[in-house]
Design goal:
This protein is an alpha+beta fold. The protein folds into 4 domains: about 80 residues, Elongation Factor Tu (Ef-tu), domain 3; about 140 residues, Threonyl-tRNA Synthetase, Chain A, domain 2; about 35 residues; about 90 residues, Roll (Diaminopimelate Epimerase, Chain A, domain 1), CATH 3.10.310.40. It has 8 helices and 20 strands. Strands 2-3-7-6-5-8 form a 6-stranded antiparallel beta barrel. It has a 5-stranded mixed beta sheet with strand order 16-17-18-20-19. Strand 17 and strand 18 form a beta hairpin. Helix 2 crosses helix 3. The longest helix has about 30 residues. The protein is elongated, with a radius of gyration of 32 Å.
Length: about 375
């Protein structure tokens, strides 16, 4: 059995131990010590990484009652080692995990919902609850969680006896009966948990809930705490400051400024669309009727523009096709006819010009990976 030093003190950064076993597996070395401060991945909490002497610990996991350190180099059994965990990562994990306990405890106390899913990853802390809370309620929960941080209350861990456990109230995803470790946040929450936590809530610094997604049986929230929350908020504040300067608006007014800008854009787009339709119609009006086909190439036309053009021109010819793009990226196209069934024609063109697309018998759209010269050659 590995002695788990993080149960004795979550803030141990370095320690000394003895290598019990070292086995090579899949290009790495799985090392077991007599004791360790490295926390193995579990319960949604990431594994600790760091060093043992001069080898890197890249992952830590449980195997039975042992903690296994996956390393990039070997250490001989019986060797004395000095271990050092990546404290920045560990402390950030503790800040976020304790913050999750605070938020989950508040949700449970006010709404009676259980935490049914928890994960800490690159995208943040993800927590699933088995009931729904709206944005206003989440704002109140966030505020209360930060008040717990500001009060700097104690966070303690204990192992109640099997006799005492049934008489205690605590949160747990599993029906536990023995070797239960309870993490208590004074006056806020009691929860079964095996992970290391901060000693007082003031170490968390700040708690921020960023978003909530309604799910079939509840809600999923994404949150961050501590240094990661600070860095995220600082990065967003810099972005707001830059947007504020670009829009000549006060930082607190950038949302209104963007709304005005989008409204202006939509108005201009509507006017531009009307002008483009008139220009297309005027261009088509001067074309003489023909029994043959018409072919157009237009710069910076999207599919809707191409559709407008071919629908206007199909009255003048047998088949009309319009292309927009360039020889490097390929061309978008639209094709229309008032009298012909285009399905066979578009299959042949796509095969010849390395294209794809389809539609109705009288109207098709798609793309081709060909040059303008090749397209013109096909339509001659």
């Amino acid at each position: 059995m590995t002695q788990r030093l993080y149960y004795e003190d979550s803030h141990i950064k370095e320690f000394d131990g003895i290598v019990r076993t070292c086995d090579e597996k899949d290009g790495c070395f799985e090392i077991v010590l007599d004791k360790t401060a490295f926390f193995p991945e579990g319960g949604g909490n990431p594994a600790d990484v760091g060093t043992l002497n001069d080898v890197n610990v890249v992952y830590t996991f449980e195997r039975g009652d042992e903690v296994v350190h996956r390393c990039d180099g070997p250490l001989k059994a019986g060797t004395a080692v000095h271990g050092a965990i990546d404290w920045e990562k560990r402390f950030s994990n503790m800040q976020n995990h304790t913050a999750e306990h605070i938020v989950s405890g508040i949700v449970h106390r006010h709404h009676g919902y259980a935490n049914v899913g928890f994960h800490m990853g690159a995208e943040g802390v993800i927590v699933d609850f088995d009931g729904f809370v709206d944005d206003m309620e989440l704002s109140d929960i966030e505020r209360e969680a930060n008040e717990v941080v500001w009060r700097n209350v104690a966070v303690t861990a204990s192992f109640p006896t099997a006799e005492d456990l049934p008489h205690l109230e605590y949160r747990s995803k599993l029906d536990l009966t023995e070797n239960v470790r309870l993490v208590t946040i004074e006056g806020v929450d009691v929860c079964a948990c095996c992970a290391p936590h901060v000693k007082r809530t003031g170490e968390i610094g700040v708690v921020k809930i960023f978003e909530s997604i309604r799910r079939k049986n509840g809600v999923r929230i994404r949150m961050l705490a501590g240094s990661r929350a600070y860095e995220d908020c600082a990065a967003k504040a810099r972005s707001v400051s830059q947007i504020s300067a670009l829009l000549s608006a006060k930082p607190e007014g950038v949302a209104d400024a963007v709304e005005r800008l989008l409204a202006e854009r939509d108005g201009l787009a509507y006017k531009l669309g009307g002008l483009k339709r008139r220009i297309i119609q005027n261009e088509v009006d001067i074309i003489r009727n023909t029994d043959g086909d018409l072919l157009f190439f237009k710069e910076d036309f999207d599919v809707k523009d191409l559709q407008l053009l071919v629908n206007a021109a199909k009255e003048k010819c047998a088949v009309v096709a319009a292309f927009s793009g360039d020889d490097g990226a390929g061309y978008k196209y639209a094709m229309a006819s008032k009298t012909a069934d285009l399905r066979e024609r578009v299959r042949d063109m796509n095969q010849t010009l390395n294209g794809r697309g389809g539609g109705k018998p009288d109207f098709v759209t798609g793309t081709v990976s060909a040059t303008r010269e090749e397209i013109e050659g096909y339509w001659e």
